[in-house]
Structure formats: C-alpha cells, structure tokens
Amino acid sequence: MSRLTRRDFIKGSMAVGATLALAPHSRVLGANNDIRIGVIGVGGQGGGHMGYFHKIPGVRLVAICDADQAHIDKRAKAFETKNNVKLKTYVDVRKMLDDKEIDAVTTATPNHWHSLISIWACQAGKDMYCEKPVSHNVWEGRKIVEAARKYNRIVQTGTQKRSDEGLMEAFEYMQKGNIGKIKVSRGFCYKPRYRGNGIVNGTNGPNPTPEGLDYNLWCGPAEMKPLRRKQLHYKWHWVWNTGCGDLGNQGIHEMDLARWALNDPKLAPRVCSIGGRFAVGDAGETANTQIVYLDYKPAPLVFEVRGLPRKKGDSSMDHYRGTRVGMVVECENGYFVGGGGGGWVYDNNDQKVKQFKGGGGGGHHRNFIKAVRSRKVSDLNADIEKGHFSSALCHMGNVSYLLGKKMSVDEIRNAIGGNAVLMESFERMLEHLNANEVDLAKEPITMGPMLTMNQQTEKFTGELSDMANMYVKRNYREPFVVPEKV
Questions:
Q1: Given the DSSP bridges, would you call strands 445-447 and 35-40 parallel, antiparallel or unpaired?
Q2: Spatial CA neighbour of 391 closest among 36, 32, 134
Q3: pLDDT of residue 203
Q4: How high is the mean pLDDT of the chain?
Q5: Are 361 and 162 in contact (CB under 8 A)?
Q6: Residue range 105-154, pLDDT digits in tens
Q7: Which burial class, exposed, middle or buried, applies to 466 when counting CB atoms under 10 A from its CB (0-12, 13-18, 19+)?
Q8: DSSP states of 368-407 as a string?
Q9: Is the peptide bond before 133 cis (omega within 30 degrees of 0)?
Q10: Does residue 431 register a pLDDT over 90?
C-alpha cells in the first residue's frame, strides 16, 4: 500500500485548496459547468449515492472508490453498462481526493472513516456529502465542522429527513406553540436485529476477509483487529471499533428529528443510558435494547432502541403511539407522531387534529448540489454542524452505557429515583424484555451513570469525567489520523 500520508498529500494539494477557499466562485467545473462527483464506499448506501447524484441535472458521476475490489467491479460494471460512460476507480481514497477533475465527493463508508474522509476532502478543496453519523466520536465530529469553515467547503450531512417538507412545516407549527409547550421529545428505533440482517455471526476466528479487500485501508483510523465474525460488511455496525450500534445507525436519523423538534439545541447538559445486548448470543458488542436520556431543559429528549421482536417467537415489532422508527413530541395540548413523510398532530384524547405531508427527504441530494452551486452554507438543510450535534448525542449515550454497571431491576429503579419520564421508559423496557423471556438474573441490565457535558468545550465534566473523556476521542492508527489542527 502507498505510504502517502495526509501531510504528504496536503503538500501537493494545499495550493489548490487555498485557491478554492479564497475564491469559491472561481472553481473550474467540468464541461457545461457540470459538477463532477466521486463516491467513496460503494456498498449498499454508496450504490444509492451513485444513482441519486448522477440523475440530478448538471451533475456527473465520474469516479468511485472502495477498499473492496468486488464492490468496485460490481458497481462500475452496472453503472457503465446502464449509462454508457467510463468511471475512474480507486481503492485508496487519498488518490481519489488528489484527482483535480473531481469537484465534490460523497462518503458512505463505515462510521469510523466518515470524519477523516470529510476533513481530507475539505483540505483538498472538495465539497462533501457525508453519511450519518458524521463521526465515530464527539471530538472528530467537531473537527469536520472546523475544516468545513476553514476551507469554505459545503458539507451536507446525510440525514435526509431534514429535507422533508412535511416535517419542516410540522416543527414550525409546534415551535410556535400551537399545541402548547413541549414536555418531552422522543425518538424511536424499533427495528428487527435478531435475524440474519442484524446478528453478528460467529465468535471464534480469526476469519478470512473477503478476497480482493484491502483490509488495512478498510480499517483505516480504527484498530486493525482480526475478524471475529463471519461477515465483514454491514455487521461492523455492532462492533465498537467501527460502529455505534443501532443508536448511530438507523437511530441517528430519529435522534436528529427529536433534537430538531426542540429547535436544534447544542449538546445536552447531561446524559445517561440504560440497556444491554440481550437474547442473541453473538459476537456483537453494542446494545440491542437501550434508553438514552438527554437532560435538556425545559423538555428532555428520550431515545429508545429495540432490536428484539414484540415478544419471543413473534415477527412484529413494538411501537409507541403507532411509531416504530420515528419520533413523538409530547406537548401540553396534544402530541405529534411522525418521521419520513411527515406525520399527524393529535389532541390529548388521541384524536387526529392536523396532518403534515412530506416527501420523505427525497430532495436531500439536490439540496446539496444547490448549495454547491450557490456557495451558501445557509442553503443546506443539514449543514455539517447539525449533523455533528445529533451524531454527538448518540455518542454521549453510548459513553454512559460503556461506563455503566450491571444492576438488578430494583437497583436501577432506585438510581432513576424521581425522574418520572425516565422511569416510564424503563418500565416499558422491562415489559419488552419480559415478553422476550429474557432472564435478567443471567443477563442483567446495564445502568450508565448520569454524565455532565460542557456544551462549549464538548467534553465531560465532574464525576467520572476522566473516564468519560477517554471515549470523546479515539486512538488513531497511523497514517489515518484525524488531525488536531485541520
């Protein structure tokens, strides 16, 4: 593998990056003023990026990059046959970013690569569409924001529901007080992770990596560990070294909605998490049942993850007020239930009051291209800082969980004390685990501590802060290091 480091790379591209940063309107686009796109990571989500962007008028997909040659071959062949064009292909992302015939890039790599790729792209003078979560930890998310601002780059977060017209209208309606003050904003990810699509098969190993995969490049900033599961791709979500669990997988979308409903506050001043990985007996590490309590004032944000079915042997999932993957905003005079596509306002008698219809955020990629052309960060529906805050809330919840202790049900009830909102969520979690016949004596629940976050420094303070801040930033593997100074 090339030993090209980011420092070497910057020396060769800084002049171009500086020119673009100082004079963004003067960038030389492709023929007919086309915006030339490169996609990094062309598995499932990245394959979608290829189609979404190439269909936008004035946009051309010109290159793809993946550490897995099989992904490159499959995607390039299908795209070239369908569109009668020839794509440039790269295994090493650094070489793609050195290509001056690419104006903007997107990334749909595993989470552990998102921040470093985004920072490198900004340094190379390229605009960036970064899939969610934008970071693997709190610190590196802030570094993308700093890079975007320093190099005057347009950086969009892949939280597509920010472009849902129905949700825009619904949140404006609520924030104007039309159903009274918000009492609690809830996000939900009740998604089946107990069958083949969720289980991290295997606990022995090491297992072989896919033929044609550059495993060193695939691991990148993460520790290069032996593969202890049978499947490399997608199952990385449930391993701490590369993923963030379903909280940072599907859940980041709904976490973002729940924070949006509260009018986009910064990081929560306090956080705690309760949960565990129950009833699957696999090689996964992240929680498949989890509550995250974010102590915003005057209204908290509560997020719930459930990967097990409604009850043991069932194929359906639980719901809360009719939503499984979505959000509920409870107010004084009613509540809103919604997600991609909009939602409904109900009164306190559960009667429908008003509907907000949306398109699910299908225009999110076009919104990015609009901002690339205008050079206005304000044109973005999901600027990188919005993505950073919502991603960081997921990381905060996981930090509390990782510092937690296994406790009995009574011990957890005592720890929750008079927090009625958290207690209600916990009691429903117990009902769910009992319905799945989880023996809590053999598989006890983990109770995380209530941690305090400094919203300015974005570091934990107070009790256990030394331990908690060890998770705010990871140890990076040379030469794939997120820089202190971008």
A1: unpaired
A2: 134
A3: 64
A4: 93
A5: yes
A6: 999 999 999 999 999 999 999 999 999 999 999 999 999 999 999 999 99
A7: exposed
A8: HHHHHHHT-GGG-SSBHHHHHHHHHHHHHHHHHHHT-EEE
A9: yes
A10: yes
Start-to-end CA distance of the chain, whole Å, equals 24
Residue whose tokens read 């599907």: 250
pLDDT, tens only, 288-318: 999 999 999 999 999 999 999 999 999 999 9
Q: Are 115 and 134 within 8 A, CB to CB?
A: yes
Q: Any idea what the Cα angle at residue 383 is, between residues 377 and 389, rounded to 5°?
A: 140
Instruction: Give tens-digit pLDDT for 432-464.
Output: 999 999 999 999 999 999 999 999 999 999 999
Question: Beta strands of 422-486 (E only): which ranges?
Answer: 445-447, 451-454, 459-461
Domains of the chain from N-terminus onward: 6-162 (3.40.50.720), 164-357+385-468 (3.30.360.10)
Q: Across the strands, what pairs with 416?
A: none
Are 293 and 247 in contact by the 8 Å Cβ rule? The answer is no
In the prediction, which pLDDT does 19 show?
35
Please list, in sequence order, all residues whose beta carbon lies within 8 angstroms of the beta carbon of residue 326, skipping any fewer than 6 positions away.
187, 188, 254, 257, 337, 338, 339, 340, 343
